[in-house]
Design a protein that fits this description.
This protein has a four-stranded antiparallel β-sheet, with helices on one face. It is α+β, with helices and mostly antiparallel strands. It contains two helices and four strands.
Length: 95
């Protein structure tokens, strides 16, 4: 298994319960695929550097996890089609 770091930004016009359920949905994808979540950091609402799809703010979430590459590709696919997520980035954490 490899170490990965996932950062995603959730829209601010949705309820706090939806934000929490969105984070849990992505954690479940990692766990169900045999991955291990090392740390999840809900960084809260922050201003974006530039406007994305008419949004100026977003809820930032950082997840450090260990998983196989197949789990990462499935996670990336679901993040792309999720309406709650404005942007996401998954990087291989070599540190």
């Amino acid at each position: 298994m490899r170490k990965y770091e996932l950062m995603f930004i959730i829209r601010t016009d949705i309820e706090q319960e939806v934000v929490q359920s969105t984070v849990e949905k992505f954690q479940a994808i990692i766990s169900n695929g045999g991955g291990e979540i090392a740390k999840t950091d809900l960084m809260g609402k922050r201003r974006l550097a530039y406007e994305i799809n008419k949004f100026r703010d977003g809820h930032y979430v950082l997840v450090n996890f260990n998983a196989e590459p197949a789990v990462v590709s499935e996670l990336d696919r679901v993040l792309k089609i999720s309406d709650e997520v404005i942007r996401h980035l998954i990087v291989n954490d070599v540190a």
